[in-house]
Amino acid sequence: MSEARTGTEHFVDASTQPETRGIEVISDSERHGRARDLFFVWAAPGVSILNFTIGATLILLGLEIWQAFAVIVVASLLWVFPGLIAGSGPAAGTSGSVVTRAMYGIIGNKLFVAFVGWFIGAVFLSLTWLASSFMGADLLRRIGLDDPVWVPIGVTIVVSAITILVAIFGHGLILRIYPVMAIVLFAIFVLVSAFILPTVNWQYTAPEPLGGVPLWSALSIGFTILASTPLSFINSPDIARYLPRSTKPSHIAAATAFGGAIPFVVFTAVGVLLATGLKASAFDAGIDVALFDLLPGWLGPLLVIGVVVNTIALNAMTTYTSSMALQAIGFRLKRIPAAIIVGLVGTALTIYLVLSSSLLEAANLMLQFLVIVSGPAMAIYAVDVIQRRYVYDSVDLFDTGRGGRYWFTGGWSIPGIVALLLGGLVTALCLSTDVWTGPIGQALGHVDLSVPAGMTVSAAVYALLSRTRLGKEGRL
């Protein structure tokens, strides 16, 4: 049986009306845009207070300034992966959550998208809404609204409602407003950074300078936290899928990677510098509170606006792509109701986190665990696009019957499933967090090799098995 979602209806990808298209294939006559348009689409979500928070974490781990900068630069190289896989969107003309049927099989992909798509989506929805909730609540507290429960919940609901609205209007609105958002956000965060710089302790040295195994432990844990951001954007094909089929994958990769990496490097580095001028008590109060205390009264509200705008930029994209993941799983939903459902789930999780944690604790813990699924999944996707050279047949991807090309073995692609499970297992064994350290991580003295080990195993297993009879594609 075929789903027959091959773009026979005419859709208008405009910023002025809700986008009704979901995972339906985009015909060549409806393709538009240029690869460079993707730069600002990815830059807007990257200008984030979460980067400040992660940068400050590197100092808390005991690193010197130059060591923290080195980790940031190395981790930024991982942005090549979202760039590399983004080209599969225009090649197939559909969502990445459909393209992955070529990696996991028709049935296997349903479970993959349900777990990976929803897990990653929920984590990032909640984390970024959490940042705006804390900072919005802190601003309101300073003007007299200090209810510790209902104020942050109210901020969360308002911001999530706007976010869902942007996701409902979809791709056309994202392309139109994200360049403006990126420029506004960059200006606000550069201004904030200008007030942070005078507080920087340029002679900063760690209270207890690290060396040997403890140093490598701190470097590797910091790398894992940083790596989780680029590796989570397995949705990059969804944003690129409207581009003309003739668009060069190298151009798509460059625009996506540089759009994400530049703000990632700049503002995570500023977070490192911010931490050098803070006392230990400031970390206990929270990075968001510490930032407010450093800024003049007129700039604090402007920063909150920047955080809210950034939250909307990142979460609207996440909600948008997660709505298509719901369709790819098999739920018979139009994209707009699916987006509303995704948004409501993310809002509920955010409210739970608002009431149970701090931004720093939530960010660090969830980002580290995220790589268990995101690293192996990204590695498999990258190997697949390289092996296929961006050749994906839209008709075959939507042929979900037993005789379809991507039915594989009973609806499961053994190479993809085995590679994902083994890579996730190795990642977990090598992980080192405050609540879980795998046996390999313990044996190495808490040196965290989870990202390189898990991705290497997944990539190698998938590359090898997909060339055997287990990876054979065909029809009955």
Characterize this entry briefly:
With 476 residues, the protein is mostly helical. The chain is built from 22 helices and no strands.
Task: Looking at this protein, list some descriptive labels.
mainly alpha, Hydantoin permease
Describe the secondary structure blueprint for this structure.
Layout: H1 37-46, H2 49-60, H3 65-76, H4 80-86, H5 88-92, H6 96-99, H7 101-104, H8 106-142, H9 150-169, H10 171-196, H11 212-232, H12 236-240, H13 249-276, H14 280-285, H15 287-294, H16 299-329, H17 335-354, H18 359-388, H19 394-397, H20 414-430, H21 439-443, H22 450-465
Overall description:
With 476 residues, this protein is an all-alpha fold. The chain has one domain: Hydantoin permease (Orthogonal Bundle), CATH 1.10.4160.10. The protein has 22 helices and no strands. The protein is globular and about 65 Å long. It starts with 36 loop residues before the first helix and ends in an 11-residue tail after the last helix. The model has no long low-confidence stretch (mean pLDDT 88).
The secondary-structure class comes to: mainly alpha
Query: Looking at the structure, what is the overall shape?
Result: globular
By DSSP (H or I, 4+ residues per run), the number of helices equals 22
Radius of gyration in whole Å, from Cα? 22 Å
Question: What's the number of structural domains?
Answer: 1
Number of strands: 0
Task: Report how far the terminal alpha carbons are from each other.
Answer: 13 Å
Query: How does CATH name the architecture?
Result: Orthogonal Bundle
SS strand fraction: under 5%
